Amino acid sequence: MPVLPDWVVQVLQVVTTLALAPLISGVIARAEAVVQQRRGPRLLQPYYDIAKLLHKETVLPGPAGPLFRAAPYLSFAGYAAVPLLIPVLTSYGLPLGYMGDILGGGLILGGAGFMISIAAIDSGSPYAQLGSSRLRTFGALNEPTVIFVIFVVALTTHTDLPYVMGATLRASSVEVVRPSHLLIIAAFFMLILNETGRIPIGSHGGTLEFGQIDEGRVVEHSGPGLAFLRWGSSVKQLVLYTIFANVLVAPWGLAANGRLGGVVVAIALLAGKAIAIGLVVVVIESSFAKLRLYKLPEFTVVSFMLAVLAVVIFLFQPGSLGSGSPRLTVFGAFATVTAVLVLLLELGMLRSPDVWEQLGLYSLGSVAVAALAIATAASGRGGGSLYALGAATIALKALLFPVGLRFLLRRFEVDPAIPATIGVPSAQLIAITLTAFAFVVMHPLQIGAVAPLPLSALPLAIGGVLVALELMVLRPHAPSQLLGFLALENAASVASLVLAPGLPIILVLLLLFDLLIGVIVFVVLVQYLATERTAVRTDILDRLTG
Known about the structure:
The protein is mainly α. Helix content is about 70%, strand content about 0%.
């Protein structure tokens, strides 16, 4: 098997990125069409579009200057330069791999986008200027998010070089499931949605008026300039996917040397990882509606707060105590991932203005808790009764309660809109503060056990309890407050499975019985308020009893 020189592999990283980028965009567009039950474009349609535009004549607007003509090519050169700095195909640094860190790559990407925005202003078109202005405004918090993500990477590896971060994850898979790392994964994924103009930020399949944030900047370009802008947009998307997959999530499968076979396998795996991320984006685009214009800053604020929380958690996260070993077991990893997932779902419930969406998020959280109970029993940490607990959790909390509540609310024509005492950004800031407070308070806690405990999951569960209480306080809507009570029980279940997996099953069943009583009380409350022909809000009861 021939061995490729390092400079050849370096060039091959750029060529692979440029060649695969339109294909990934085509796969995403085709998958969206399949999900939406329409025919859609061909997989190779982006290649045909680029080739067609390259043969078109360039038409310039009257006020356009030299910067407008040069911006597409300068931005494309910036996007094409980033693959020289990141691990696209190899796990080791290539000749130019250590010439820039993650922050340097981010500056190049930001500079390329800034060139397009300046060209939009130079065009004199009000639509292009509007798109540029909106993008700069709504993306103001993207840079702080990147900085805090890099801060966590630097705390973990003592450097911010992407190759070192990938090597750290490959050497110790524990780092992948640490709460701080999981949170920067979530923050960076939200950043990807923002930077690529995907729902809930933008819609690539909508009309120009609704896609005026990202697509509006290039409205005055044509011919080869527009071809390089479209191609560059695909390259930027693939570069972000590559950083997400090969640096933060799954840095495995990269070539350990320059052998041709390993490089070819790395190319195939890169395409597979990018397609998998693209399919996740398709699911998000098909499941959520685009946010209203004035709601877009909330999305970037949440991603920034998650990155800030990741830094706080890293500084105050406890270790695995009890046996003195820092090794995280498979059960510990599963418990930590479940605790992070339950917390993120509660943050989603706190953000959601719709009771139907809150019901869906609660159901997902209940399924996660049931999976943790089953995993606890399978790991030998609890008795076989935990299998029954997992089945009961799915039957009651994931199916019966949500379906019954949905039926009841529809029957009495309850308004699904949930009133909020304060705005979403303020509520999310309070939730992040409460979670950080849980880590600060739990940091000096010492708990002994025969086997190592995943103590990082415990403050996450406590934070979930506090966020659920916040949901009950800030949403004066009976269905939302009931779901807050049920979400609180989910977080408490995670904490009990982490600390006391051998808890007698009778105590757990009694807790489920309490939840059933709570649901019955809620049913009576809804029937009474529906009889009074008023809103299903607990502050109405205050006025009735006053």
